């Protein structure tokens, strides 16, 4: 399977497992799971064909491990804009986590902190390198440090997704550490 096809299938899965399952007639269970055969048939019925082998390849090779397979079911690991309960228990975060963004967002973040926007949670990375890659998707990256230890002590809940992304409902500005002037 070539790289372009892998990316195309991955984006299709993200769209329909995280954001718009109803567009192809899918109904996810409360945990975000759907039967793989049901997904493949629904996609084909809506003009996008892929095989189980292609699906397995996309899941296995995705650098962010965006998808999880259990038995004959699949779901997105995190990043949903639709209501799902991933069943992730609260977890104790490391002292600092990181968030990648771009300059044009900094004024709003300074004022309001990090908000989930069109997702259910704010996504945080365990290391600066990952946060840098996330921020770079939108332009020149800026990495913010999040005082996750202090947030946790103050009662904020964190969860860790299957693919290593830390999730929390919001990050108030007082817990953010901004880089110096560029």
From TrEMBL:
Q: What EC class is this?
A: transferase
Among the Pfam families in the record, one is: PTS_2-RNA
SUPFAM superfamilies tied to this protein: ADP-ribosylation
* Keyword Lyase tagged: no
Q: Which InterPro entries match?
A: Ptrans_KptA/Tpt1, RNA_2'-PTrans_C, RNA_2'-PTrans_KptA, RNA_2'-PTrans_N
Q: Which UniProt keywords apply?
A: NAD, Transferase
- Give the Gene Ontology MF terms in alphabetical order: NAD+ poly-ADP-ribosyltransferase activity; tRNA 2'-phosphotransferase activity
Kindly give the Gene3D superfamilies that the UniProt entry links to this protein: 3.20.170.30, RNA 2'-phosphotransferase, Tpt1/KptA family, N-terminal domain (1.10.10.970)
The record's Gene Ontology biological-process terms are:
tRNA splicing, via endonucleolytic cleavage and ligation
- UniProt keyword Transferase present: yes
Enzyme nomenclature, EC number:
2.7.1.-
> Which HAMAP family does this entry report, sorted A to Z?
KptA
State what this protein does.
Removes the 2'-phosphate from RNA via an intermediate in which the phosphate is ADP-ribosylated by NAD followed by a presumed transesterification to release the RNA and generate ADP-ribose 1''-2''-cyclic phosphate (APPR>P). May function as an ADP-ribosylase.
Q: Which family does it belong to?
A: Belongs to the KptA/TPT1 family.
Q: What is this protein called?
A: Probable RNA 2'-phosphotransferase
């Amino acid at each position: 399977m070539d790289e372009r096809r892998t990316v195309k299938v991955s984006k299709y899965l993200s769209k329909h497992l995280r954001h718009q399952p109803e567009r192809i007639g899918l109904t996810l269970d409360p945990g975000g799971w759907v039967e793989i055969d049901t997904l493949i048939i629904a996609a084909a019925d809506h003009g996008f064909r892929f095989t189980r082998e292609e699906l397995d390849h996309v899941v296995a090779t995705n650098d962010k491990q965006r998808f999880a397979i259990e038995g004959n079911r699949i779901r997105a690991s995190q990043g949903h804009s639709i209501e799902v309960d991933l069943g992730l228990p609260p977890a104790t975060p490391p002292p600092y986590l990181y968030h990648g963004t771009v300059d044009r967002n900094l004024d709003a973040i300074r004022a309001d902190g990090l908000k989930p926007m069109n997702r259910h949670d704010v996504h945080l990375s365990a290391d600066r390198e990952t946060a840098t890659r996330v921020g770079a998707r939108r332009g020149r990256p800026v990495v913010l440090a999040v005082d996750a230890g202090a947030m946790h002590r103050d009662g904020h809940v964190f969860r860790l997704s299957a693919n290593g992304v830390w999730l929390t409902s919001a990050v108030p500005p007082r817990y953010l550490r901004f880089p110096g002037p560029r």
